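Writing this down once: the sequence line spells out the residues, with the fold written below as integer tokens. This is how one looks:
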Amino acid sequence: KMTQQMRDLQLAQARKPPGPSSPNAAKRLYRNLSGKFRVNYTSFDEGSLAGRGEKEKLRKSYLFQSNAALFEAVELQDLDRVQELLKQYSPEELDLNTPNSEGLLPLDIAIMTNNAPIARALLQAGAKESPHFVSLESRSLHLSTLVREAEQRVNELTAQVVNEAPNADCSEKEKQLKAWEWRYRLYKRMKAGFEHARVPDAPTNVHLSVASSSSVQVTFWEPLSVNSAVVTKYKVEWSCSPTFSPLLGEAVIDKLKNLHFTIRGLVSGTAYYVQVSAYNMKGWGPPQASVPPFAIPSNWREYDGRAPRRRGQAEALDHLLSQVKTVHQHCVCHEPCKNQPQSRKHSVSKSLKHLFHPGSKFLKTLKRGLYLTAIFYKDDNILVTHEDQIPVVEIDDTYSCLLMQDFLWFTKVSCMWDEILWLRQCVTVSQSSCSCILQTRFKMLLAISQMQGLLGIQDLGQVFFEPVKDKQGNILIVTLKEVKTNQTFESVRWVPICKLQTSRKSVSSPEEPTALDTLLISVQDKLAYHQRSSHALSPGLYLGYLKLCSAVDQIRVLVPERLPNILCHVKIRSNPNISREEWEWLQKMASVEEPVPAEPEAETSQNHLFQELQVAIKELMTLVNIPLQEAKDFRLYSQEVLDFGGQVSFLLLLPPSDDVCTAPGQNNPYTPRSGFLTLPLQIFELGEEK
């Protein structure tokens, strides 16, 4: 494979049309001629490779050619070739920051020939400038030396070609002369580029925001000027004084993929001024102060001293569950069922024996009843039984109770797959009751245990948000789990989904498909839902839209199909933090009965948030298909900022109080466009927690 790649590289170079005055062969020949500034390349000669395997020799030779190809592409200003090499090889494989025989790096050549696109591509890949250039004088001297030596070599070769009779040696010297002439022109162009360059202008759009109670974040753009040399790094400085004297700290940013920097370790409640300056080969340009000119590290909770809503809740719940388990260890439900009626004890015993009996297996067909099916998938494959059936076990063949409450209870149980045996023991004590609900839920736990035992795995995944039903009275509760490793399961095997769908013989009519047929037809939709449910939002502050609709037995919430675990939303900004000053301004806006659309003072964080909210509200109203004029009756939820893990936060936009939840039969004049669905509120809450 490596040999073939070397051939491809050589063929690609051979196919490249030579420049009018720069034959590739002459250039490659030149690389072997100049030795004055040669560094490290001698490690690739035959002596240093002695005693190593042929494979190692081939690899180093191949990488050396890749490095030479990168230099050649930069010198020829071939952007496509540079991008291809940067994509194909890592910076280490290309020796991206190892000087060549002239003491130059690829980035040096790009910036001194003022080739901004190639320079930016190299900077994105992590390229640096040569460490030889410690000052403007050293760079100027180095370029002058290269130009002078190249000119001298051209003169020497010209004299030799003119004075010698035509022969093989003369032809070789003509090739060398062409290479040195091209090199001479390149060095002169680099020298002229350096001499005509000037320091960069100040960065633009320098914006300062509060990132937390102890940090601020500054974002900025490149300088607008196109006449100066390419910017290779930036400097961020901060101080408690608007004159930046004394200076509290500074940071140099040389990784230019994202032009932002977070200043950490600051004192809450103290104002910090920030400025940013740019650097190119001529030095540092003038600094640009941020807008707003200063920021005060804070968080919205400091407005009224509110503690995080979820602080300690997970630990408290774990402790409570541990206490419950401890109490139940001495409960009658863990003793022999001596207090139960004989017939009931025999029935339960029979059920438990049936669970572990070798004859326990997956169902092939459905009768009228309630069933559990588990869908495990990996890429485009799905787990099926040896009969090419999605795993199904029976919960109750006489099911006639209200499903929704039982179904929602089942979804909560899915958060405790590892505790099913303990839950089953706890529910057993209530078997003497004639409660249909308790009987059904105990059977649910038995079915879960049976599925876990047959598959040999406890975690059955996430419950799909609604059961699959058919007209024959069958109900399927569906769990979904993505398998990302090569796990092996008992009694099942992997089959491509498309093969399963085409090979299965339906036993129902298209007009009245069974629940299993419906499940198989819609399996891709369910897998897509499951995958989208696990997606996380990128860090930032979002504006969410809360819209509910009620039915007889449940409340449902409107969510986008692409992210069903999150409310309908648009992104306000990348910084998730709301500062104390911003929250105070929002509180004042919320307390006014008739808000006046007056903007806050210019160049303040409140003004910037005001502008961001205006844009976000317009975008959100378009998204959910609500006329913008209706937004005047909407309001921001001003009780708190919804915080999710510190990296994602939400401001909620609420409809008028009468329209937050649409009642059964109530007409909703504004129906969202396609791409939305409604989830039971309890399902949404579980998905949000995950």
Notes: Residues 1-51, 335-359 have pLDDT under 50 and may be disordered. The chain is about 40% helix and 20% strand.
